[in-house]
Write a structure and sequence with these properties.
The protein is built from ten helices and ten strands. Strands 1, 2, 3, 4, 5, 6, 7, 8, 9 and 10 form a ten-stranded mixed beta sheet that branches. Strand 7 and strand 8 form a beta hairpin. Helix 7 runs antiparallel to helix 8. The model has no long low-confidence stretch (mean pLDDT about 85).
Length: about 325
């Protein structure tokens, strides 16, 4: 255990000195990785959950490394370690659960064995996804690395804004230099762990995009055909209007207005149908509300622009009708 602690600290110091590394930390129990549950209780009461509460043991800079905000209090420092005063950081969900009417800071928790000393809460961390991208917030406790007991499995976490492959290679070399008995260092990105969960959403999004583009093309072709037919059917009327002094702009405006009336009627009907069936589509959506007003506004605006663009050619044709040709055909 003593050698392990020394190795962890040496590893952190070595990795943090690598160019391109912004933050590094060690964690036992991390999002989308190993998960551990232990009994957590308030003094004088039983465990707050019959199935235990998820827990992590982390070194300083962990929250900067994984990007989890501290919403109240402070994060762990290098002074929070084995042998120092027991402290803990709780998730926002757990803070609301245990202390709904006040601050969690300064309160204490008994983590694990009931004989352990009480750990003082020094911070509240934002809720995070622990195992799934689609999951409700759950209570979670963080302890400083070295103050945990009963679980293990260290993971070195590194945040680098760019050059991930180069940083990963440098990490492998630094760790091998620290201990000649290390023959293999396996590295992976957090994205690689998350991607399998995103695969079905990406496939669904691709299908939706393809279907949407196809529907837009069909709608555009349909509107174009209707306008072209209307202009051809009213060719005689348009020629007479031009002969009586109507301007080309007036004739084009008639076609544009017809196009907009057709498009807006269809959009209104589509919005109504979409709003009615939206709740049934919620399981297929990722981080988008089924009745998101911005989505409805954006789609309606796009369809309106497409209607205007589609009506350009029929409107130009209508404005170029030769009234003399129409009048000769009547004579």
């Amino acid at each position: 255990q003593a050698r392990r602690r020394v190795m962890l600290r040496q590893s952190l110091d070595a990795v943090r000195s690598i160019p391109g590394v912004d933050h590094a930390s060690v964690a036992v129990g991390m999002p989308f990785g190993f998960a551990f549950n232990v009994d957590v209780a308030l003094p004088g009461s039983g465990p707050i959950s019959p199935n235990g509460t998820s827990i992590s043991a982390v070194t300083d800079a962990y929250f900067d490394t994984v990007g989890t905000a501290i919403v109240e209090g402070r994060a762990f420092s290098r002074e929070d370690r084995e042998g120092s005063a027991p402290v803990a950081i709780v998730s926002a969900h757990l803070a609301r659960q245990l202390w709904p009417n006040g601050s969690a800071l300064g309160n204490c928790l008994i983590v694990g064995d009931a004989a352990r000393p009480c750990a003082s809460v020094v911070g509240v961390a934002a809720d995070t996804h622990r195992e799934r991208l689609r999951e409700a917030a759950t209570p979670h406790v963080y302890l400083p690395a070295g103050q945990e007991s009963g679980f293990g499995g260290d993971v070195l976490l590194v945040r680098a804004e760019r050059g991930l492959d180069d940083v990963a290679n440098a990490v492998r070399r630094r760790l091998a230099d620290l201990d000649s008995t290390i023959t293999l260092v396996r590295t992976e990105t957090l994205r690689e762990r998350i991607d399998p969960q995103l695969r079905s959403w990406r496939l669904g999004a691709s299908v939706f995009v393809f279907a949407g583009i196809l529907a837009l093309l069909v709608a555009s072709a349909g509107l174009y055909s209707v306008l072209t037919y209307l202009v051809a059917a009213r060719r005689h009327e348009i020629g007479v209007r031009l002969a009586l002094g109507a301007s080309a702009g007036h004739v084009s405006g008639v076609v544009f207005r017809t196009s907009l009336v057709l498009a807006l009627t269809g959009i209104a009907a589509g919005v109504g149908v979409a709003a009615a069936v939206a709740p049934r589509l919620e399981p297929l959506l990722f981080d988008v509300a089924p009745r998101d007003p911005l989505v409805f506004i954006a789609v309606a605006g796009l369809l309106t622009l497409v209607a205007i663009a589609t009506s350009l050619t029929p409107a130009i044709r209508a404005s170029r009708v030769d009234p003399l040709e129409i009048l000769r055909s009547d004579s």
